[in-house]
Amino acid sequence: MSEGTDTATQVFVDHRELLFAIAYNMLGSVADTEDVLQETWLSWTGRRHGSPLDGISNPRAYLVRIAVNHALARRAVITRRRETYVGPWLPEPLLDEAAPDDSAEGALRSESVSLAMLVVLESLTPLERAVFVLNEVFGYPHTEIAEVLDRTPAAVRQLAHRARQHVHARRPLYRAHPRVRQQATERFVEAALGGDIAALMEILAPDVTVWTDGGGKARGAGLRPVHGRDKAARLLAGYATHRGTGLDVRYRRVNGDDSAVVFEGESPYAVMVMDLTPDGDQVSDVYIVTNPEKLAHVRREEDTNTAKERA
Questions:
Q1: In 171-281, which ranges are continuous DSSP H helix?
Q2: Higher model confidence: residue 238 or residue 54?
Q3: What pTM did the predictor assign?
Q4: What are φ and ψ of residue 75, in 5° steps?
Q5: What is the per-residue DSSP string for 48-115?
Q6: Would you say the C-alpha torsion 194, 195, 197, 201 has a positive or negative sign?
Q7: Backbone angles phi, psi at 275, to 5 degrees
Q8: Which residues of 233-266 are buried (b: 16+ CB within 10 A; e: fewer)?
Q9: Which of 44, 70, 71, 189 could covalently link to 26 via disulfide, CB atoms 3.0 to 4.6 Å apart?
Q10: For the segment 281-299, what is each residue's pLDDT rounded down to a tens digit?
Q11: DSSP 3-state assignment of 158?
């Protein structure tokens, strides 16, 4: 391997976590994001003339442009897949895993919007989502985004305006304090897995919605979202029927939010993410991912201090 190729490889490795974070926020799928990174790598190393670095003054900007355009092409594949998907579709959960040295590179992988926000972003056009992610999440100015997307700055500003209007209309800007989120998450999970209908009725908002994504591959996953406190409480209490199998609940951060990861034996059973009302007192939305394909990247942690064993 030549020195130029070695350098090009190192440049890609140095930016890999940034590229992962951008693509994941555009796609909501770890597997598709990994494919986009592979395609980006092939594009990066497959340039016809000399070293991948020849004639490139800003490798970071060049790599981001490649990754974003591969991600936009991948959106068409995901859309076709969604047309035959069984039941509600939710983004693939991304468990936050800090780097051992707490480095900035390791933290980039966790630079993702919440699962609830990813659901909202699904309703944007691919270009609107790309602009929103680059601008709102990663702070890219409109002029740089215009170069990435090969659009005029005016067109990018218009896309950004439409995306912000749409997102802010569907999702309030307020976010509960992390400690409040953690406490609400633990109360909710204990009530749901304990089959405590009364406690669920107290913590669920009257107009709560429960989204269960089993992809037709998990038992008990509904084919439609469940709306309203009464129906939601009955559905959630049903999870208590699995107590005899020995569910193990571990509180982890998923897409930046305190959430619950449930294991059945050694296998991941569900990832449960709650969204709170503006005052933080009740749960407004529940997102439950049980599709085993979307839990393939979920790993058990051996820190028993974060676990709650259930017989």
A1: 178-193, 197-203, 229-237
A2: 238
A3: 0.86
A4: -55, -35
A5: SSSSTTTT-S-HHHHHHHHHHHHHHHHHHHHHHHHHT--S---PPP-B----TT--HHHHHTT----H
A6: positive
A7: -110, 140
A8: bebbbebbebeeeebbbbbbbbbbbbbbbbbeee
A9: 71
A10: 899 999 999 999 999 888 8
A11: helix
E strand or H helix at 309, and its extent?
A: strand 307-309
Q: Rounded mean pLDDT of the chain?
A: 84
Distance CA 20, CA 64 (A): 10
Q: Mean pLDDT throughout 227-253?
A: 80
Residue 156, φ and ψ in degrees, nearest 5: -65, -40
Cβ-based neighbours of 281, under 8 Å, separated by 6 or more: 184
Round to whole Å and give the CA distance between 310 and 122: 35
In this structure, which amino acid lies at residue 276? L
Closest CA relative to residue 258, chosen from 243, 270, 275, 246: 275
